[in-house]
């Protein structure tokens, strides 16, 4: 999948390739951090069965001199709770980044597919000249659209889509719905992109 993102970066406008790459990397990072959060929660839940030597890895630097086992457990529980809170905050930031990356990919793709394709492809007699001055700098060919479509199809496959939806499994239905709607819109734009 990373090769597809790098191909996308080279072959089309860098902003879209960079955003797709950011999205893919963020999904991967979120999965890794979700596993780390689950490990922290499991460790906190198993504190009561840990020995003093096992607890030592969870004690802050200044607390290693404490000998009483109940006190060590209490300090380790507080330290793990701090780590869990920090990890949950990080997960919220990752979710924010995922949502915004997905939205930006959709916005760029929507504009690219609907505004930047030469008008001659739609039967307009302007022979490839775009309608406004701001769009005149776009030199888009049917090959560009075809390359974009192929690159995006290889990134937004079923496996990646499932991973992306999985990142929202513990979130509200509204947040899951947003990701699902963005994926549907992106896939629809990719599917119905005019190619030669």
Top keywords for this entry?
single chain; 196 residues; Glutathione S-transferase Yfyf (Class Pi), Chain A, domain 2; 7 helices; 0% strand
Structure, explained:
This protein has one domain (2-191): Glutathione S-transferase Yfyf (Class Pi), Chain A, domain 2 (Up-down Bundle). Helix content is 69%, strand content 0%. With 196 residues, the protein is an all-alpha fold. It has helices at residues 2-11, 14-45, 52-55, 69-115, 142-155, 158-166, 173-191. The longest helix is centred in the middle third of the chain and has 47 residues, at 69-115. The protein has 7 helices and no strands.
Question: What is the structure about, briefly put?
Answer:
The protein has 196 residues and is mainly alpha-helical.
